[in-house]
Design goal:
Helix content: under 10%
Strand content: over 45%
Structural class: mainly beta
InterPro entries: PQQ_b-propeller_rpt, PQQ_rpt_dom, Quinoprotein_ADH-like_sf, WD40/YVTN_repeat-like_dom_sf
CATH class of the largest domain: Mainly Beta
Distance between the termini: 81 Å
Organism: Paenibacillus jilunlii
Mean pLDDT: 91
Protein name: Outer membrane protein assembly factor BamB
Radius of gyration: 29 Å
Largest sheet: 5 strands, antiparallel
Shape: globular
CATH architecture of the largest domain: Beta Barrel
Low-confidence stretches: 1-24
Pfam family, one: PQQ_2
């Protein structure tokens, strides 16, 4: 018998031996079983065409200070105005990324666009104004607000806030009209300025036995405080000399079953209480005796004359113009998973919006039929999301950005940014601007999302 035949026989014998069970003295080799084995049945991979940016350029990385969202870019009129890593402001054509002009140095991450000009802050705390078309400086005003948290232009005035401080600057000349500062030991977390009917309104958190919201009203011309009211939230509306504000009921009326929203009506100039509205309901789901306030449990917002009130298991609608004590709501909707969602208090495309407490994803509810659509069903959690028109854009913690059609909820395209960091998304004309990982990407939008 040849060597080749002997080798074949030996090989077959080995194969048979490997397939047969071993007798005593043999060793059985088995894969180790996991002590715990689970999978996520809700995991989905978004299937959409991957598109490449039309252009990408370095942009200053957003630096969040004291939980205040920085602003490193704004987009208007087919242009992008961005803060470069070198601290200079640059204007670009949104379609091509071509640079139009540069301005300044050591500029802070705080700017807004208004009526043909960009208003921003320097790191030294000066407010500046430059022209949109050529970047030429119009004026600057030394405010000393090196950590300004908001800039807002209303009418002919620029309002700048930094914590408890607020300044009013003439938008045409740069002249400082007035500056005020509340006691930093008692006032915290001031809101941006709201100008209406000759006054300026801010909300603060004030400390005492507990921390509560405080509404403060100032004269627009002088900055003098006209009045303030504790336990009042930001204005729902200011109309015909009356300020409407929801009252904060925490530790005042903590009945978990018999719930209510109270809306006070104040004289805008004097703060005199003109009246109060009460909207009541029974929370039949509150069986544990624990009071849950605010958010989806009990909060209100206005959209025109439509007053929406989140009432735990349901969302309801009232006509704000025609208040009748004890009246039933005009409409009701079931609030799905309300204990896990934060309402965004706005209406867009006939939809109400929430964010999920866990995924931070965007969720929409159609007012026409109460149906919900989730835009957090991608591969990872949401970092940044925005809606422009009928386009929903979701930046994830894996660096992917998915674009969806708001009406159909279907994915349209995906962008691979390469970074889990996202700053606010921007849009001008037919371009989406993505800030991610120190890069600004220009994406040409399909006709369906323009």
């Amino acid at each position: 018998m040849g060597k080749g035949q002997n080798f074949k026989k030996l090989s077959c014998a080995i194969c048979v031996a490997l397939m047969l069970p071993l007798g005593e003295g043999g060793v059985t080799v088995q894969a180790e079983e996991a002590a715990v084995s689970t999978r996520n049945p809700y995991y989905q991979q978004v299937e959409a065409p991957v598109v490449q940016p039309a252009w990408s350029l370095p942009v200053a990385k957003a630096k969040v200070v004291d939980n205040v969202e920085p602003v490193t870019a704004v987009a208007e009129n087919g242009k992008v105005f961005m803060l470069q890593p070198n601290g200079k402001l640059a204007a670009l054509k949104a379609a091509s990324g071509a640079k139009l002009w540069e301005y300044g140095s050591q500029l802070a991450q705080r700017m807004v666009y208004n009526n043909g000009a960009i208003y921003g802050m320097t790191t030294a705390g000066a407010l500046y104004k430059v022209k949109e078309d050529n970047g030429s400086k119009v004026w600057s005003a030394a405010l000393g607000y090196g950590a300004a948290d908001s800039i807002k232009v209303t009418g002919g005035t620029v309002y700048v806030t930094q914590g408890q401080k607020m300044a009013a600057v003439d938008a045409a000349t740069g002249k400082i009209k007035w500056r005020i500062a509340e006691d930093p030991n008692n006032y915290y977390f001031g809101s941006e300025a709201l100008e209406a009917e000759g006054v300026v309104v801010r909300n603060y958190a004030v400390s005492g036995a507990i921390t509560v919201s405080l509404l403060a009203v100032y004269d627009k011309t002088t900055g003098n405080k006209l009045w303030e009211a504790s336990r009042q939230l930001a204005p729902l509306a200011i109309k015909d000399g009356v300020l409407y504000s929801e009252r904060e009921l925490f530790m005042l009326d903590d009945d978990p079953v018999n719930r209510k929203i109270q809306i006070a009506a104040f004289n805008l100039r004097t703060g005199a209480l003109k009246g109060e509205r009460t909207y009541s309901w029974t929370d039949k789901a509150a069986t544990d005796g624990v009071y849950h306030g605010g958010g989806s449990y009990s909060s209100a917002f206005l959209n025109g004359n439509d007053l929406y009130i989140h009432q735990g298991q349901r969302l309801v609608l009232y006509d704000f113009r025609n208040y009748v004590s004890g009246a039933e709501p005009l409409k009701k909707w079931a609030q799905e998973s309300y204990d896990q969602r934060i309402p965004l208090n706005l209406v867009h495309q006939d939809r109400i919006y929430y964010t999920d407490e866990h995924s931070h994803g965007l969720i929409a509810m159609k007012l026409a039929n109460g149906q919900y659509a989730r835009f957090d069903q991608g591969e990872n959690n949401t970092v940044q999301a925005a809606i422009f028109g009928k386009g929903v854009y979701v930046g994830q913690s894996d660096g992917l950005l998915h674009a969806y059609d708001l009406i159909s909820s279907k994915p349209v395209f995906t962008v691979r940014t390469g970074s889990p960091e996202f700053a606010p998304l921007l849009k001008t004309g037919g371009m989406l601007l993505i800030q991610s990982g120190g890069k600004l990407h220009g994406i040409k939008l399909p006709a369906s999302l323009k």
